[in-house]
Amino acid sequence: MTVDEQLDYLRKGCAEIISEDELRERLALRAVQGRPLRVKAGFDPTAPDLHLGHTVLIRKMKHFQDLGHTAIFLIGDVTGLIGDPTGRNSTRPPMTREQILENAETYKRQVFKILDRDRTEIRFNGEWLLELGTVGMIRLCANATIAQLLERDDFTRRYRQGKPISLHEFLYPLTQAQDSVALEADVELGGTDQTFNLLLGRELQASNGQLRQIAMTVPILEGLDGKQKMSKSLGNYIGICEPPEVMYRKVMQISDDLMYRYYELLTDLSLAEIERMRKDAETGAAHPMKLKHDLARRICTDFHGPEGAAKGGNVFRRVVQNKEVPAEMPELDLPPEMRGQTVIRIDKLLRSVGLARSGAEANRKLRANAVSVNGVKHREMSYDVPSEASELVLRFGKKWARVRL
Amino acid sequence: MTVDEQLDYLRKGCAEIISEDELRERLALRAVQGRPLRVKAGFDPTAPDLHLGHTVLIRKMKHFQDLGHTAIFLIGDVTGLIGDPTGRNSTRPPMTREQILENAETYKRQVFKILDRDRTEIRFNGEWLLELGTVGMIRLCANATIAQLLERDDFTRRYRQGKPISLHEFLYPLTQAQDSVALEADVELGGTDQTFNLLLGRELQASNGQLRQIAMTVPILEGLDGKQKMSKSLGNYIGICEPPEVMYRKVMQISDDLMYRYYELLTDLSLAEIERMRKDAETGAAHPMKLKHDLARRICTDFHGPEGAAKGGNVFRRVVQNKEVPAEMPELDLPPEMRGQTVIRIDKLLRSVGLARSGAEANRKLRANAVSVNGVKHREMSYDVPSEASELVLRFGKKWARVRL
Predict the structure, then answer these.
(1) Which segments of chain A have a pLDDT < 70?
(2) What is the interface pTM, i.e. ipTM, of the complex?
(3) Which residue among A137, A145, A155 sits closest to B137, beta carbon to beta carbon?
(4) Do B85 and A150 touch (CB under 8 A)?
(5) Is B143 an interface residue toward A (CB < 8 Å)?
(6) In which band, very low, low, confident or very high, does the pLDDT at B322 lie, cut at 50, 70 and 90?
(7) Does residue A170 sit at the B interface (CB-CB below 8 Å)?
(8) For the segment A230-277, what is each residue's pLDDT rounded down to a tens digit?
(9) H or E element: which one contains A70?
(10) What residues of B are in contact with residue A177 (Cβ under 8 Å)?
């Protein structure tokens, strides 16, 4: 590929590139030197539970790998070791090194569904940040001014609103910038909310006599509702470990507009190809429902391979399109005593949610092949809850219920 | 002494005590516990060249010692190890540990003219600050907010004027506060420009489960002109290592108003005694000139003992009051080639400043006892320049010159 072709491939789905000219020059320079670009993206060390929103960034890392470059998956372990030092956030206690390494393993299981292992460096910033020490931290902090840091959008807003900004929060952009120096990053990727930090990395590299990294930001992905940011807490997400039939069904429920957006941010298709699709749909040359099936198949394939995608499609067609499942059914929460269990007693669940009047009735229906879970017949007493599943659709004879996990 | 008597003694010459009630309680508490108060004051690790302006603070430390308490002379070696990390200040390169220890020795030589060695702890904050490391620094910084730090007078002013404040400058108040925690200080002394930092120490102690230190500030001493802050660069200072005759003469040149101020800030006399003096002078019961001689004698005694004070007085009376020295004489700078020399060739100096027409004439006059330096006859070719002397008053036969060092 020529440099301009590479640039076209990389530009797709980016919110901003600072600057495209520099990226072009860097691609040309490294080509001449025969060295791959070093493409950094930072991740926090808490237990990951990745959804498609995260994959926009990871996929951009992969695009660089597709062109032969090196992706650096940087885990901010120092942040994890610190936790929330103000003690205001009880969900962020300091983590142990073991926890962090364990989370790194969980990350790997998830991200190598997208990234190429051979072109990925996994690094921990404790490697160089812990060496800085007291003196190094003070010296590092000499590289930014208060006025400059207060210009970061979220800091500006909080300062104006009189909401407290703790001094240690000002240290993080600097340590993130130091990461770029230590890694000699050519490119740093981040969400649009990371622009400030990425630019600070450029400055710190320049004052350390390095070439400045190119800052590339990707947009925040909208959730299934097409409005709000995809997030687990809003329930509008597709987790990358969800079973294929759930993934497939969730993709099928998005709007046509959102479908093109997902094509752009969640597949490797070029902008030209996506534009052609949209035109075909408008002229009637293609049916949007077919395009949506294609998207669902592509996304399922990414995480479950062609077989998983086929399964997802089959379940969808059988259960949803053939109207085997009623459109409306009672929605319930999992009984508290079953929460967090990886194996549940299905007879107890059926009675607990009110589908079966007794354990005996539940057992009879199970033996009579009259129970199914998520579209699949089930005969055992115990049921292995798929990790990352968000709901169980229960059929009990002619009665139905949707149980939120 | 009762607690209230102690309080009276300590209150003298203070700009502010936050709070007096707490100081009263602390004195009472430590008396019951049989433990001396720990009284901290911080000094920077650059080569000290102390003048009377500094002694206001050191004398307040001594007042605590007079009451049996412990003075902690804290040297900020971490700051010294860092220098000016922005590189904008060429006079503040990082110092070596050896330089810092050497400066500490110079400090000791100077401050033990006032402080009681047995009740002084000399400490270096590197002891605990270097142990903090990267993680400890970030945690420490969680104890203050940006808005709070921007409230410090000088930071407010610079921020409003659009002058840069480097982030590392925000770390220093926190490390100073950490010093108070590490030392378990009961009291911290500082100039009025230190109030903010002293108060931050109180907060950090409280959040570390300690009693909060009492913040005591002393005023900035005016120089000999009675207007501007005493400072070496303004030339309106009395160095604590200057020869007694220079000290004595400089004290004698201050105004009567300034004399009472110096009595308050530079002697151990009580406010009541000073008030009585002022009244006596007003009613004619005492002569201000006599009071000024008394002040000069007291100050000389502090740094040169009774003999030095006697010498200073004698030289002053002989040279100045008996008009042995002309009121007006040419003032000149030391020739550049002699600057920084501890021993100078007096014959060359006499010729260089134009008193002698030739080296031969200079030698003749030296042998003829016709040369004096600072009021003392001199016959040798070489002259040992007293450390900290600010000028040499040269007599050459009937000609005079004042040479600034």
Answers:
(1) 47, 83-84, 86-91, 321-324, 327, 388
(2) 0.74
(3) A137
(4) no
(5) yes
(6) low
(7) yes
(8) 987 788 899 888 889 889 989 998 999 999 999 989 998 888 899 999
(9) strand A70-75
(10) none
